[in-house]
Amino acid sequence: MTVLTESIRTLVDQFTSTAYNLDVAVTPPADTYTSEEFFAFEQSAIFARDWNCVGRVEEIAKPGDFITTEIAGEPIIVVRNRDGEINAMSSVCRHRGACITAPPARALDDLGAPLAETQGHVESFQCPYHWWVYDLNGKLIGAPEMGQTPGFKVTDVKLPRFKTEVWHGFVFVNLDPNAQTLASQLTPIEEVVTNYRMAELVSVEPDDFPNVPFNWKILVENFLDGYHASRLHAGLHDFAPSSGVEESPFEEDSAIVWGWSHNTIVDAGFNASFKALMPSIPGLPEDYRQACFFGSVMPNLMIIGQVDMLIAFLIKPTSAQSHNLRLYYLVPESTTKLPNFKELLDMSKMGFVPITEQDMGTNISVQKGLGSRFFERGRYSWQESMVNSFNRLLFRRYAAAAE
């Protein structure tokens, strides 16, 4: 638990004016993006209490399939057990604290690297240190040479388990045993994701971007910011102008900020042709064919809905000024069977490259500017309403933790 120092309390107080309504709110204090002390508070206030997306069900499709991740500094295993259920549990051995999924050795020229995330298939988990063995539900089933330890019983030992929830194919984990269900916090977009058939779409090979050099919140704000579309990206997707961005009704007790980009053409695509390159998602409502859906699920999942595919951004903060990013591409299974599917997907991805390069370059410059002694908190445009709503959700969590 992070100690609430005077500087953190001051920043939370200063953040109050960011949580005002759009017409009077100002942007957040710079230190909420640059301070490692505030980042540690944020990990406790948000990531240790909210539902964190950790991946897709396709990544743990069979019993024994597992992935590892980290939430608020906690090393986690997510595994499908023999009954087909998904378990999330601590990877910290109950003996001497080694991470049971860690490799047994580390190259001497790589001692400073963080513990890598892994995935694979196992029948059980064996700690590399002393070979304690845990089953797929986290129960200890083997402990060599412990028979002479008075009072020790293998059956008394198990790994801490965490709440899990699968939402339309995405796997979420929450460290808070008293957390409200995720689905109840995402009811505002249930109809939308059902219309996109998100639970039926399949994820193809994701793209990973490690060590992205700016604060995770800058990425979310950029994603939700309609103001820059017609400026920064002028000429690249003029069919989706800033004037066409519309926020859906904001609900403070939800975990979602979302809205639409209303396009000037039907079946638009973010590529040089301005047209979607793959077949439409079956059954997509007619009005969806002239719009793009944008949704940010607190705290670390963002989704873009297009006529032919969905793109999901999974964020894993690593410091106040860096994060890891994974992009998932979700398409109908029928699309993956097209003979030229790989080529169409690659061209669709390439269409995003110049847009992404502009976003990334600008976000890096924002991180630099936030460190300036001349930085001043600004006012919002009406086209930044979703950014304001995201920051209102943040403040709700900051304030709760500060209490």
Automatic annotation (TrEMBL):
Keywords: 2Fe-2S, Dioxygenase, Iron, Iron-sulfur, Metal-binding, Oxidoreductase. InterPro entries: Rieske_2Fe-2S, Rieske_2Fe-2S_sf, Ring_hydroxy_dOase_asu_C_dom, Rng_hydr_dOase-A. Its cofactor is Fe cation. Pfam families: Rieske, Ring_hydroxyl_A. Residues 51-173 form the Rieske domain. CDD domains: Rieske_RO_Alpha_N (cd03469). One of its GO terms (molecular function) is dioxygenase activity. This is Aromatic ring-hydroxylating dioxygenase subunit alpha. It comes from Pseudonocardia acidicola.
